[in-house]
């Protein structure tokens, strides 16, 4: 098992918290995305896009820390699939279609990836 230094441990702990926050944001959007959605929905979505960028940066570090461990590579690929699903957001016009996209594709894929990531990280960040 890879030994983490303090900075790496902190980064992965923050990463795990970010994933939980992202899940909350996706749930908020799913629940509030109506034809007359409040402006907060747009802001939460923008915040999620920033969070997805942060996740990309952490993944680069994780590949280094874990020396391209096959499970990390698999998680990064699974994440890319989540992002691909999310890009469909920009191809649908109605809020109803976006909500359906979240319900049918993005949330199930995100949840599966997050659960797999949590399982991988658990032995490294729990003391």
From TrEMBL:
<protein>
    <recommendedName>
        <fullName>DUF8042 domain-containing protein</fullName>
    </recommendedName>
</protein>
<dbReference type="Pfam" id="PF26154">
    <property type="entry name" value="DUF8042"/>
</dbReference>
<dbReference type="InterPro" id="IPR058355">
    <property type="entry name" value="DUF8042"/>
</dbReference>
<feature type="domain" description="DUF8042">
    <location>
        <begin position="6"/>
        <end position="123"/>
    </location>
</feature>
